[in-house]
Amino acid sequence: MDTVSGGSALDSLRWQQESYKVADKDDGMLTQEDFFALLTKELSYQDPTKPVENNEMISQMTAFSTTDGVTQLNDQFTDFASSMSSGQALQASSLVGRSVMVEDNSFTLAEGEMPKGKLITEEPASSVVIYVENAAGEVVQTVPVGNIGSGESSFTWDGTESSGYAAPPGDYRFRVAGLVDGKASELQAMTYRKVDSVTLAGAGGNILLNLNGGSSMALSDVVEVSEG
To answer: Is the pTM of this model over 0.85?
Structure first.
């Protein structure tokens, strides 16, 4: 039985393959070129009497193709996520100077402003009154509303106290009370807050809207935007 020895042709082939080296990659990722170089290296060292089966070769090619496809998909998703972040940043920056609704009844009054709010009730209410309280809890203005239906109702405070003079700038809150099914109840009140600035890399990677009065909220939590 003939045996295969290290002839000149085989040695020459082996020498040529050994002279090829996979280039170092800064990111540690194998490219398609690297894969074929390693595959050629594997073939040069195999026993000629026991060549690699076709199904093994196909399996290796399929595995690499799948890995390469996943890598490309990850790159595309990263580009998509970056594009989405840029779009959200642009959207958030357009809100500076405008007002967004906050699920809170407190707000900060600036000179010349007329704060807006919204009261919410699941059932009709009667004898509804809006009380404006300062930071000390003192009622500075009382606004009778009367009867309202279920749902949401918007309102605006002109910024004046019961005396008729403009209220000083500072922290205030709306408190809304009325009768629901004949029983005294406090209704939910929300306020509009002006956006002073935007933080693009806030807590948890969220885009944050910095509101007047020192608080902030995530862009994703915005449910309504007002011009003023």
So the answer is: no
Q: List pLDDT tens digits, range 100-130.
A: 888 888 888 888 888 888 888 899 999 999 9
Pair 17, 44: CB distance under 8 Å: yes
State the average pLDDT for the chain.
74
Residue 30 DSSP label? -
To which residue do tokens 């580009």 refer?
Answer: 79
Residue with tokens 């709306």: 174
Examine residue 16 and state whether it is found in any structural domain, yes or no.
yes
**Separation of alpha carbons 214 and 196, rounded Å:** 9
Backbone angles phi, psi at 71, to 5 degrees: -60, -45
Q: Which amino acid is at 39?
A: L
Q: Are residues 114 and 87 part of one domain?
A: no
Task: Tell me the mean pLDDT in the region 74-82.
Answer: 52
Q: Residue 70 is inside which H or E element, if any?
A: helix 54-93
The tokens for 81 are 């996520």
- According to DSSP, the β-strands at 139-148 and 183-199 are unpaired
Q: Is residue 13 part of a domain?
A: yes
* Residue 19 domain flag: yes
